[in-house]
Every structure is written in structure tokens, then in C-alpha cells.
Amino acid sequence: MAFSSRPTDRPLRVAIAGLGAVGMRIAEALDKGIPGYRLSAVSARDRLRVEERLSRLEHRVPVLAIEELEPLADLVVECASAALLPTIAEPFLEAGKSAIVLSVGAILSNEYLVDIARARGGRLVVPTGALLGLDAVTAAAEGNIHSVKMVTRKPVRGLLGAPYLNERSIDIERISEPLRIFCGTAREAAAGFPENLNVAVALSLAGIGPDRTSLEIWADPSLDRNTHHIEVKSDTAGFTMSIENIPSENPKTGRITALSVIAYLRKWSAPLWVGS
User: Fold this and answer.
1) Domain count of the chain?
2) Is the pLDDT of residue 251 over 90?
3) DSSP state at residue 96
4) Which of 53, 117, 193, 271 measures 20 to 30 Å from 156, CA to CA?
């Protein structure tokens, strides 16, 4: 069941896989009420902790294993980890339903999910997340985009534990000035920083692809926000975009990420649609 641009006779049932800072913020918004939707189930690793957090909601919902979510929901919001994306999304796509994906980088290593969605009438949805200007990039891609470059600067704690750093024994915990730790493509960044650079993959999917989108990553001990600067050159427009995201409880994710999902859900059921 793919999304309709208008509300259905009954609210669409939403499952959330992963109830950390982002998932919980979305759950709270659904509990308060988003027209056309209701929260129907959640899944998370620490069931006891999640049930305690859910006790704050007005409407109680079951905490289930990931494999049990699909029968109880029309769409799932993936707020877990890149490694869990196939387990979360595949049952929904096989049933012709939708999956809103925040671990966008994992799509590149699980492209068969797109094939399933195409064959079954399902849909993989990538919300704007912690980025801006994806509408402009998508529009420019209808013409000819010459280049897309992104420079990301993050506080040190938002990059700790990344496989790219661990594999190369790059120690950033004690740096005293900005350090460029990566220069390459969005595809390479998705593999090396699976929990950190979903924004770069979203940008690449909106534009010229993960192998032509270039990226620099800087660890900056002076920052307390995740910053992204993007330069796009095309045959229809040249534009630059910058954003400074305030981190959520999870330093790897900005507060605006959850709000972008909430805004997306509101758009799908609203009588006035702004943005392409």
C-alpha cells in the first residue's frame, strides 16, 4: 500500500522501528495527533526502557519485535540502524506498503529493496532529514547537474566510533583544531560513516548519484552543531546551501531530523501541498 496524496477513510497506521531520540519525538507527535495517521506499534532493542518512555503517551501501543510490525501497520518509519534496514523495510515493501528511511546510506548496500518496491507497488521514502534544498537539487537533476560538492563539519563526539576512523586508527578525541578526516564520494562515506552521513546519501540520490557527489568531512572540536555546506552547479542554476543542525540526544543526529518526518506526514494529508 503506497501513500495516497489525500487522507483515506481511516487513519493510516504507523509503526516506528527504533525509539531513540528521533523515534520518540515522532511517536509523541503521532500521539498528539497528525491528521490522517495513528501510531499503531513500535519496536526497539531495550523493551523495558521503551515501555517506560511510552508510558508518557496518552495512547498506549504495543512494543513488538521488528518481524511483528508489518501486519499492524500501513507504513513504517525506520529510526534504527543501517544494519537493520532490510529487516525493517522488506516486509512492508513486499506487502506493497511504504517505508520511511532515515538510515539512507544503507539503501546503497541494499538496492534490491528498490526492486521489491517497484515490483510490489511499495515505496521507499527518504525525507529531507537534516539537510535543506533537496527540492532544488531534484529539480536541477531534471536538467544537467555538472557537480555537487558537500563539506560537513561535526563536533568530535558526533563522529566517534565511525568504522572509517576505527579501520584507519584515526584518533580524533584529543584534537585541538579542525581536522579533515575524509575526502571522497558519498558512496564511500556511506560505507565509512553509516550512522553519520545519511545527509550526503540523500543529497546524492536527489542529484547525480553517490559516485559523482563529492564530500569532505571535518572533525571540529570548536563546534557544538552539525554543519553542512553544499555547492551545486548545473545548466539551470548554480546555488549554495548551508545549515547548522542542533544535535539531538544522539550527537550523531540533528533535532530537525525527526521534525522533517513529522512535516512529511503532515504534507501527505494536507489540502495544500508546498514543495515538490
Assistant:
1) 2
2) no
3) T
4) 53
For residues 266 and 127, give the distance between their C-alpha atoms in angstroms, rounded to a whole number. Answer: 12
Residues that are catalytic: 228
- Reduced to 3 states (helix: H, G, I; strand: E, B; else coil), residue 243 is strand
**pLDDT in the model for residue 246:** 84
- Specify the pTM: 0.88
Name the residue range of residue 116's domain: 12-130+256-269
CATH number for position 187 = 3.30.360.10
Residues 104, 127: contact at Cβ < 8 Å? no
Q: Is residue 6 part of a domain?
A: no
Tens-place pLDDT, residues 4-60: 444 456 899 999 999 988 999 999 999 999 999 999 999 988 887 888 888 889 998
The CATH code of the domain that includes 68 is 3.40.50.720
Cβ neighbors of 213 (< 8 A, separation 6 or more) are 148, 149, 150, 185, 186, 200, 203, 204, 207
Answer for the pair 42, 50: CB distance below 8 angstroms, yes or no.
yes
Q: What distances in angstroms separate CA 102 from CA 64, 178, 185, one per listed residue?
A: 20, 27, 19
The pLDDT-based confidence of 276 (bands split at 50, 70, 90) is low
Axis-axis angle for helices 21-32, 255-269 (nearest 10): 30
